[in-house]
Amino acid sequence: MSILVRFVPGGATSTEQYDEVIRRLQDAGEFPPDGLEYHVCFIVDGGVRVSEIWDSQEKFAAFGEDLMPVLADVGIDPGEPTVLDVYNTIAR
After folding, report:
1. pLDDT digit of tens for each residue in the chain (92 aa)?
2. Is 20 exposed, middle or buried (0-12, 13-18, 19+ CB in 10 A)?
3. Domains of the chain by range and CATH?
4. Who's near 30: CB < 8 A, 6+ residues apart?
5. What is this structure's pTM?
6. Is the dihedral angle over the CA atoms 32, 61, 47, 28 positive or is it negative?
């Protein structure tokens, strides 16, 4: 079953930090990761937010092992993500 994961990082995470994380992951060949169906980054009240749809909790957890050290190195506290079961998706 697919899951929706929502991140609300602590502090005033900047788009520059976000871009650096994506660049590092892409340079390492780790982004987009296996199991990631959809990734969206948006701004709320000046802070970066990320929502993703994953094939499974297991694939999301496996990617976390690659992601967490990069976030820490860039200075992003991801906080505790909200994980929800996806009932349905509709694509155009």
Report:
1. 899 999 998 765 799 999 999 999 999 999 999 999 999 999 998 899 999 999 999 999 999 999 999 999 999 999 999 999 999 999 89
2. middle
3. 3-85 (3.30.70.100)
4. 63, 66
5. 0.91
6. negative
